[in-house]
Each structure stands twice: as structure tokens, then as C-alpha cells.
Amino acid sequence: MPKGINYYVEEAKKTMDRRAEHRKIVKTWKFDTIACHGIYSLEEAMSCGQGGIIEPVIASTSQAFRDSDELEAALAYKIPSWSYARIHNPTIFYLEETLALLETYGTDIEATGLCTSSGMSAIKQAVEPLVAQVKGDNKPINFVSSCQVYGGTYQLFNVRMAERGVEVKWVTSPAETDKWEEKIDENTRFLYAEMPTNPQQGCVDIKKLADLAHKHEIPLIIDSTIATPALLRPIEHGADIVVHSLTKTIGSNGNCVGGAIVARHNLTSKHLTDEQKGNYAFWVKLLPFRDSGPCMTPMTAFQFLNELKSLRVRMENFSENAEKVVEFLSKHPKIEKVNYLGLEDNPLHPLAKKYMKLVDTDRPMFGHLCSFNVGGKLEETRKFFDNLNIISRATDLGRIKSIATIPAISTHQQQGEEGRAMASIPPNMVRLCVGGENPEDIINDLKQALGK
Ligand SMILES: *Cc1c(COP(=O)(O)O)cnc(C)c1O
Predict the structure, then answer these.
(1) For a designed S-S bond to 3, which of 7, 21, 95, 174 qualifies (C-beta 3.0 to 4.6 A apart)?
(2) Protein residue with its CA nearest to atom 7 in ligand 1
(3) Is residue 46 over pLDDT 90?
(4) Which domains, ranges and CATH numbers included, belong to the chain?
């Protein structure tokens, strides 16, 4: 006797209700507890992980069904299932849930996460539906972005978007909210900023920017890669969508590439349909994401899940190390200028302090990324850089190991001199991301390289 589709729908409802009940309890926990457990309850462990205390890697391309009714219900998205690993997967689900819970920590805001193959694909998936041409409407499409964005984002916005007639309007002083307002018109689809920015250490007034976006009925997207939810949760301040390169600070061990979108439910956009706005991340997952295929692998999700468990402790350690290194650099005669939001004399310090704090404390904290300009002739910058011993020369950041690069010849090479000048990236700037080593050793490495 076939059970019928309704049987599976009813059973799924019961599971979903129990999951929702458990999720409510999880929402009352502290940050570290959520980071350690997410929604991986004993029930989840019994049904998905053979009782294993750590979320399992479900390394299977697809899911088998009991009968044709269950298969049909699953493929019609009528029951929570994962079907095929390009669309979904249980290990990835636990990561998405944990990220959404951490990004909305301390609020009753509902949000959903979507994991992607990389940070760039998260950004692409987040913005793509927003810049879609509505059928029968030939109005030009634009969006407004801080010009201080990651090099890959700059190329996506400046080159790839232009290729299809979508215009990016750059804001060159993103901390001043009125500079954003000047650029918005009726064809503006969204606002986009990073906080804090890489490598200049810029920041924006998220709350004011969100209010401005909402006044124009468009969403605000924040790339929060450098801050992580341990230091900043933009949704709490009004942002609609947060994007992450999980590759970086969240995945500080440096083994995997991945990204994530976390979108609040019922986000603001006059261009999206109600169905799209209701649960944007989930809608993207079920349709455009499924159709373009930038999925994460289960093994990668497993590694990020395990790194998330100690995120707050790591961010505290990294930030404290960075503070000590920045203090050393600020006093060094060969250094012209140090950019770090934690420096009291940084003009953006008061603004950054309003938003960036170690979660569950009142301690202002600014992460492990800084940059500085080396004085003297341009060769001095390269000479110093080439003499570093412990600090790796690499176009990477967010690592447990300290890493430095010269943005003008690496991460921001492609955007050209004009683009770099606009984004305040001089050729003598070195970007340094301080890791988990003892800061004394990092300071000594900098000292000897500057002395040569
Ligand atoms: C690295 C980075 C990205 C892109 O992420 P990938 O995982 O490398 O694709 C986006 N935004 C910021 C701030 C980054 O540092």
C-alpha cells in the first residue's frame, strides 16, 4: 500500500515543528553555546549522525527515498529533504543554521543562511536577483557601493556588471552617509559596503545606511568577512543581507574556500516579489542557486562548522595580538601611517566603536587586519616586505598564521592606479593580518625587516 504524499507532508511537519521548538531554545543560549552546538540536537544526532556528538559529514551526492510518494514530495519542495548535493546537504544545513543564528544573535530577527562555493559566489548569488531586468521594463539598472571593497568584488561590480549594462555608482567616502544619498535614484537596486574594509580599514555607519536604504525601499548588503559575527552583526543594525568569505577569518586554518549569505526574512526591496523577499536566502537556494550550481562541498562545511565552534575565543586572541603589533608599528620611525580602527587617533575610531565589540562584552574590538605605509623610497616597502621571515608573503588574510601583502601589486593590482587612488591604496601600503602566533615573535620579525 503506498503511503501517499500527504503522509510524508504530515510527518515532515512534525519534524519541522520539533526543529522550530528546539531552535527557539537555541536562540536563548549565549554566543559560544550556539557556536558549539547550532541546532544539532540529540534528535538530529540520532536521525542524521548515529548519535555522534559532532555534526557528521554526509558525503553523498544524493538522498534515497522510501517510495515514489516521498520522492515526489521532496522534489516538489513539500518536505524538508536534500535530494541532491548541488541543492542541499545535511552537513551544509547545520553550518547554514549556525551562521544564521550567530548573525542574528541577541535579537528576535529571523534570518536564513545559504552556503556557497566561495565568498565571491556568495556575493554574486546575493546581488544577482536584485539586478535582474524586469520583463518589459527597459529602465537602466544601477546600485551604489562603497569603493572600498575587496579586489574581486571591485572587478565583479566594475567590469562584469558593466558588461551587461548594470552600473555601479561608487561612493568614495563611505563613512559619510549623505554621500550615498546623492547617488541613489529610482533605478538603484541596493546599497553595498564592507565593514571594516580591506585593506584601508574604512567603515560605514550601518544604522544610518540601512535607514537610508529603507527610505528608498532597497536592501543594504554588508560584507562582514573581516569582522565575523563575534565582533559585528550587521543585521541587528538594520542590514538586510550579510555576505561572508568563510575562506578568511571564519576558516582561519586555511584549508577551504567557501562563502555564505545570511538574509533577514521579509527584507526591503521594491524590485523583488513578495515570494523572493519572504525568505530571500532560501528562495535563492531553491531556484537561482540550484540553476547555477555554486555549491559548497560537505567536507568543506564540516571544516567550517568545526572552526566556528571557537570563533569568539579566536577573534579575541587575534584582535589582542593585532593591537600589540599596531602599537609597535605606530611608534616605529620608518612607518608613515598605520590604519587600524582600534587606534584612538583614527578619525573613524568613534564610529567603528559604536558597532564593533567582542560579543557578550562591552569591549570595543577591531579584528586582526591592519595596514600601514612604509616611509622612504618605494623600494623600501619591497625591501622590508622581502625580509619578513615568519610573516608569510601571500594574497590571503584571516589566517591563524600572520600574512602580509602589498595590495597595489597583488589583491588590488587589477583595478588600476585610478581605482586604487579612489579607494585610498597607495603603492607603499602593506596589509598585515595578524595571526595566532605569540605577538612578540611577530613584532620581532617586523623589527628586523624594518631594520634592514
Ligand atoms: C576574500 C574576500 C572575498 C572573496 O572571498 P573568496 O572566498 O576568496 O571568494 C570577499 N570579501 C572579502 C572582504 C574578502 O576578504
Answers:
(1) 7
(2) 119
(3) yes
(4) 90-308 (3.40.640.10), 311-451 (3.90.1150.10)
